[in-house]
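ok, trying the design again with the full structure, not the truncated one.
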């Protein structure tokens, strides 16, 4: 009897083990189609300009598997599966997608960035609670738009000048603010015009401990002081005129914002080249990047002003862009804000622009970083960065250098150089295909044929019903960061 039971038990075990094996085999087999179904997309026949600055690769193949680039090479010796989705790009040019290092993101901008080949942006002017949510919406596929890195609230000495700024009145509070912004996903910190040397130094030290850079639109300290405090980037090349042209470090409270802006850019005309060379050496040694944002800040000084105005007016008439706010489309329609009526002011601005151009080339040739950024706000998103590359070439950079700046160099300063910015295996598959050669004429950067983001071909058309799941809210103070800083200060007081 005992033996019979044991025999039946052994038979049960045998069948149970067989079922387990069959189940596991089924799992293994079921996993194969999933792996094989990972999309393989192949661009065939185009010329690769890989973003590293080397010679273009003609008649090339770019193999994309899932979200990443799997292979890059000549068509004659690069293999890919017959089952792959093939896109013939013969006669076209394959570049890394563009990166804009200074935008002020709004909820209507996403399609416009993508349509112009910009798949990554760095936002420098929003409350952290909103921009972190929008960044997550993009990453999790809930909205169409560029990948968003962000600084969150700008940090400044009190009182805050804008609704997105938060004031910090001590180095200790500044360090708390950095940690709080980082906890919400900030990939960099931005300091503002009233920040003192002590505040910038504390912010830079804390940010660097966390592995993120600090950039600034500065005024109270000049570029030399900011470099010594540890800053990593100078937005709009701010602080340079304070160091080189005796520009006042305090804004005149009586000036309206437009006149103050004109005064600031006119001051570049007073830069002394000999002093500039000395300052550049310091900035390069401290690895401080210059972010000129010429497409926004210097448009009125360029010979392209009227051409840009005509182009903007066409966007203003596009019926598919009805979701763009009326006040923005009115600016596009007239471009009136770029017309400086005072002839003496305009002449001085144009001289200042020439000196800025020389400064950028000097900095770059000395080994410093110059970044491509458009300060997109009232401008056509994406188009503004294409214009920035054109203006870099106008300043004396080669088309290849401008492309490298707008792709690889921007990615490196974002500290995403291992994932973005060039076309090579293991990089994220963010690619733009152009109909014409941008090395022959940088204006061809606008001849966008195909945009690929995360390995997927992007719809680059405009949709009148475009919207995002997390619309931009009206800002009510105190904002999240202010509340958290107040809580920290209260806890500190209570503990004492």
């Amino acid at each position: 009897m005992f033996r019979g039971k044991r025999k039946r038990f052994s038979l049960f075990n045998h069948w149970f083990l067989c079922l387990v094996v069959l189940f596991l085999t089924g799992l293994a087999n079921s996993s194969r189609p999933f792996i094989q179904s990972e999309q393989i997309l192949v661009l065939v026949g185009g010329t690769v300009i890989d973003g590293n600055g080397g010679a273009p690769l003609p008649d090339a193949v770019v193999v994309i598997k899932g979200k990443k680039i799997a292979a890059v090479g000549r068509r004659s010796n690069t293999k890919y599966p017959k089952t792959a989705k093939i896109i013939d790009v013969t006669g076209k040019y394959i570049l890394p997608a563009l990166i804009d290092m200074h935008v002020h993101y709004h909820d209507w901008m996403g399609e416009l960035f993508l349509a112009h080949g910009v798949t990554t942006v760095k936002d420098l002017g929003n409350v952290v609670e909103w921009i972190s949510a929008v960044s997550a919406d993009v990453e999790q596929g809930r909205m169409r738009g560029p990948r968003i890195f962000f600084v969150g609230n700008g940090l400044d000495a009190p009182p805050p000048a804008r609704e997105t700024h938060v004031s910090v009145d001590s180095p200790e509070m500044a360090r708390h603010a950095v940690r709080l912004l980082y906890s919400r996903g900030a990939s960099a910190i931005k300091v503002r015009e009233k920040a003192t040397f002590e505040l910038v130094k504390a912010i830079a030290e804390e940010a660097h401990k966390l592995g993120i850079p600090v950039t600034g639109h500065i005024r109270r300290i000049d570029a030399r002081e900011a470099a010594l405090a540890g800053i990593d980037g100078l937005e709009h090349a701010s602080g340079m005129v304070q160091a080189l042209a005796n520009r006042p470090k305090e804004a005149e409270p009586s000036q309206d914002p437009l006149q103050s802006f004109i005064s600031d850019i006119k001051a570049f005309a007073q830069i002394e080249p000999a002093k500039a060379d000395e300052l550049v050496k310091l900035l390069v040694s401290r690895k401080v990047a210059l972010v000129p944002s010429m497409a926004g800040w210097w448009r009125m000084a360029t010979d392209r002003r009227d051409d840009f105005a005509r182009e903007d007016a066409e966007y203003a008439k596009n019926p598919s862009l009805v979701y763009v706010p009326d006040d923005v489309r009115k600016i596009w329609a007239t471009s009136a804000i770029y017309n400086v009526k005072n002839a003496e002011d305009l002449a001085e601005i144009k001289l200042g622009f020439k000196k800025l151009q020389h400064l950028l080339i000097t900095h770059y040739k000395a080994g410093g970083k110059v970044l491509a950024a458009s300060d997109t706000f009232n401008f056509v998103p994406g188009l503004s960065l294409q214009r920035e590359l054109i203006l870099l070439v106008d300043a004396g950079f080669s088309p290849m250098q401008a492309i490298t700046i707008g792709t690889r160099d921007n990615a490196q300063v974002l500290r995403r150089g291992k994932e973005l910015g060039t076309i090579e295996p293991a990089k994220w598959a963010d690619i733009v295909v152009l109909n014409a050669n941008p090395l022959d004429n940088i204006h061809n950067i606008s001849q966008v044929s195909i945009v690929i983001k995360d390995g997927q071909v992007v719809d680059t058309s405009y949709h009148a019903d475009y919207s995002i799941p997390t619309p931009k809210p009206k800002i009510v103070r105190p904002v999240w960061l202010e509340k958290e800083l107040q809580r920290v200060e209260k806890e500190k007081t209570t503990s004492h």
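Keeping the full-length input from now on. The first strand starts at residue 40 and ends at 48.
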